[in-house]
């Protein structure tokens, strides 16, 4: 019997160091609901920064982590280890992503989608100096706020007619669009490259907003921001930033709810 097959050798299996390190990074990242930087994770795990970056890239590629605004958060593949992500867990992760966007953009951020024939506000996060808009007319007033205008722009002509028949374009402010022909239209193919759709005091007086369209399969949704009119000069730059931040991981969370 040689040394490789002795009971003592079998009792001490070879440990894969890189796997151990990756698991330590996952455990460390899970302790930061708002995400952690690579330097924070390196410090918490005692790993060299270069090693940390190398492992983080692999974990992000395989969706065990996701990276947003320089911070690393647990990704959808982590939920897949124990089964399908629950709606509650998915919503919490979506809110976490919106919170990071809100902090970065200093604007209120919303995720809306069109489902079962209705415009649905799934989650929203305010920012200091940028409170959430009044949501009482959100579904019926889709023709007035930027997210709703974006969803209407992505619908087929038949879907749009059906929606507006159920929710007519009533004026919510003196600036509200009142004719379907005045609503913007967007192609379903490659909508992320489209110019963000904006509104200035069409939904609520004193508030401006912009939305970026997103499409996954047959699902349509929008991520939008709102600002007080005193900050409306920031809207175009914020919308441009927002368009660059929408990752595949974000879409996976959004449409998995």
TrEMBL record:
Position of the signal peptide: none
Record has Transcription as a keyword: yes
Record-linked SUPFAM superfamilies: GAF domain-like, Winged helix' DNA-binding domain
Domain HTH iclR-type stretches: 16-76
UniProt keyword terms in alphabetical order: DNA-binding, Transcription, Transcription regulation
UniProt GO BP: negative regulation of DNA-templated transcription
Residues of the IclR-ED domain: 64-257
Gene3D superfamilies, A to Z: 3.30.450.40, Winged helix-like DNA-binding domain superfamily/Winged helix DNA-binding domain
InterPro entries: GAF-like_dom_sf, HTH_MetabolicPath_Reg, Tscrpt_reg_IclR_C, Tscrpt_reg_IclR_N, WH-like_DNA-bd_sf, WH_DNA-bd_sf
GO MF terms, alphabetically ordered: DNA binding; DNA-binding transcription factor activity
Protein name, as recorded: Transcriptional regulator
Lineage of origin: Bacteria, Bacillati, Actinomycetota, Actinomycetes, Kitasatosporales
